[in-house]
Amino acid sequence: MKWLTDNLERFLIWVLSSGPLPRHVAFVMDGNRRYARQHQKRVFEGHSDGFMALRRVLRICMLLGVETVTVYAFSIENFKRSQEEVEALMSLAEDKLIELCEHGDLLDQYGVRLNVLGKRDLLPESVRAAAERAESLTRQNDKAMLNLCMPYTSREEMATALQSTVEEALASDVDLSSLSEKDVDKHLYTSQVGSPPVDILIRTSGVKRLSDFLLWQCCEDTQIQFTPTYWPDFGLRDMIPILLDYQRSMWSRQR
Ligand code: FPP
C-alpha cells in the first residue's frame, strides 16, 4: 500500500512539474488546536502533528523544486497563550529544529538551508541556541531554503527594517529624504536571507485573514489561497488544486 501511495505521489508531482511552478511558497499553519479537539488529542499533540505536517509539506515542496518555503511557526502574539502551551511549543521547537537539520534528515537530504526569522531575542535562551545550531548545521546547503518565522509579526519586521534603514543611512550620511521603499525592502528579514518574491501564500483551517504575516511581501503578484483543511491534515491532496490554480493563472498571464 505504501509503495502504491509513494509512487502515486511521485507521479502526481511529475505531472505538476510539467507546468510552471512557484519559487516561493509561504504557509500560515493554522488549525492545530481545532484538529486536536476534533481527534480528542491534547493541544500539544496537535502542535506535534503539525510539525509532522511541516515535514510532509516541505518534502513535497522539495520534490516540486520549490526554492523557498516560509512558515509562520510562532507569532509574537502567541506569547499571550497559556504558559503551558507556550512552553510546549518552545520545547517542540528546541527538539525538532536540531532533528530536522541532522545528517541524513530532511534538510540535509534536500540541501535546504534553515533560517529562523523574527524577533529572536524574545525566545528562551535554549531555543535561541537551538536555532543558531540548526542554522549553522545547514549553512552550506544551497539547493533550497526554509524560513521558520518565529517569533514573528509583519509589523515588527517592518518596524525593524525601517529602523535599520534609517540607522544605516545616518551612519553613511545619506539624505533621509532620498530613502525609498526599495531601501526598506532590503532590510526585511526575508530579503536579508535572499528570499525570492512570494508566489503563493496558503492559510489552512478555513480562516480568511493574514494575521500579520508577510504583509509587505504579499505584493500584487502573490496568490493568496485559503483552504479549509486543518494544518496537521494538510498534504499533497490539498496542494494539487492550489498548484493547478497557480498554473492556470500563470498560463493566462502569458497569453
Ligand atoms: C496555529 O494553530 C499554529 C501555531 C500557533 C503553531 C504552529 C507550529 C507548528 C505547526 C509546529 C511547527 C514547528 C516548530 C519547529 C515550532 P492554532 O494553535 O492557532 O490552532 P487553532 O487555530 O485551531 O486554534
UniProtKB/TrEMBL annotation:
Keywords: Magnesium, Transferase. One of its GO terms (biological process) is polyprenol biosynthetic process. Pfam families: Prenyltransf (PF01255). GO terms for cellular component: dehydrodolichyl diphosphate synthase complex; endoplasmic reticulum; lipid droplet; membrane. PROSITE patterns: UPP_SYNTHASE. Belongs to the UPP synthase family. This is Alkyl transferase.
